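Annotated sample (chain length 246).
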Amino acid sequence: MKKSLFAIFVFIQLMAMCGQVIAQELVIKKNISTRFPNFPVIDEVRRTNVKGIYEVRIGAEIYYSDSSANYFFRGEMLDTRTGANITRERIDRLMAIDFSALPLQDAIIWSHGDGSRKLAVFSDPNCSFCKKFEPELKQLKNVTVYTFAYPILSPDSEQKSRTIWCTKDRAKMWEEWMLNGNLPEVDSAACDAAFVERNLALGQRLRISGTPTIVFEDGRRSAGMLQLAELETKLKAASSSQSLSR
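Output written by the structure step:
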């Protein structure tokens, strides 16, 4: 009987706490919308581990507020005890991509060694940083790379993507173009090049706005080219961590 009463008491306390949190969220949303009429719609308000500080989220953008939105700010929250960047970790989770759900049939695929480590790259054939990134990728061992042609720079990027896709050895031709600037004459109208539209739609859905964008197996993404050492570090971290998208 005592255990039952205690359980009821705990349940009531939890419900009261939940009610307080919801009420606090409503206060923050109301005050921000009233004081900043043109501010975007807030997707979520939630407590942080810092007493009296709340996270205010709009899409993948993170702001912070006190309990009444009297003080409202944007910046990175760091845990000085561990060195962890709380804000960056939260954004990584919000922006995480389910690697297993990527439509790999629309990617140009190549591998080195046993191919056990995997990453995906969204790349534009006319992107200078993408071309500089290719030699770094080629130095990786025991890796499988899925390159999604993501032609966002110009109509010519779309044509080059289709030309490469319509060759017999896509991986070899992508490498030949990106490293040596050689591209054959191919009748891209003779093959199914609708993958371009699918890749563009995929990138927009995943909020990929620039190339190269690298996606690791644990769901983390990295915008911009990486040097080999940093690429190796991120690959090791991805293989040892639990997927962020789960």
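Annotation: Confidence is low (pLDDT under 50) at residues 8-19.
Annotation: The chain has seven helices and eleven strands.
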